[in-house]
Every structure is written in structure tokens, then in C-alpha cells.
């Protein structure tokens, strides 16, 4: 799953110019519950990608491609 997210992150740098992949990966590895949610989003065809982070909480913000 990390490989998929990394590739998508690198392909869409314009969505999260203030983030580095190393920071995103570190946060994901620290919060396995997030990985479970992202895995389910991916399995449903949602193609999750981070689009930023909340400065107040420090949490990453994720979006998914609409599933039609």
C-alpha cells in the first residue's frame, strides 16, 4: 500500500507542495489505523491521495477520486 501511495504522491505533487513523502510515510507508519482506512479506500477504487495537512492538529488531509 505504501508503494501505491508514494507513486500517487509523487505524481500529484501540485496537491501537496508543502509536504514531503518522508513525512507522510512516517505519519502513516505511526498510525496504522489510517493505513487500514486508506487500504479500504483503495480497494473501493477511490485512489486516495494526501492533499495537505491541518496546521492546528498536524493531521494529514486525504481525498479520494469519486467512484462512479
Describe it.
Helix content is 47%, strand content 13%. The protein contains three helices and two strands. A two-stranded antiparallel ribbon has the order 1-2. By secondary structure, the chain is an alpha+beta fold.
Task: Annotate the secondary structure layout.
Elements: H1 2-11, H2 21-30, H3 32-43, E1 49-53, E2 60-63
Antiparallel strand pairs: 1-2
Feature tags:
alpha+beta; about 70 residues; single chain; two-stranded antiparallel ribbon; about 45% helix; 2 strands
Number of helices: 3
Outline: globular
Percent strand: 5-15%
Largest sheet: 2 strands, antiparallel
Q: What value does the Rg take, in angstroms?
A: 11 Å
End-to-end separation: 22 Å
Number of strands: 2
Question: How would you summarize this macromolecular structure in one to three sentences?
Answer:
The chain is of the alpha+beta class. Helices cover 47% and strands 13% of the residues. The protein has three helices and two strands.
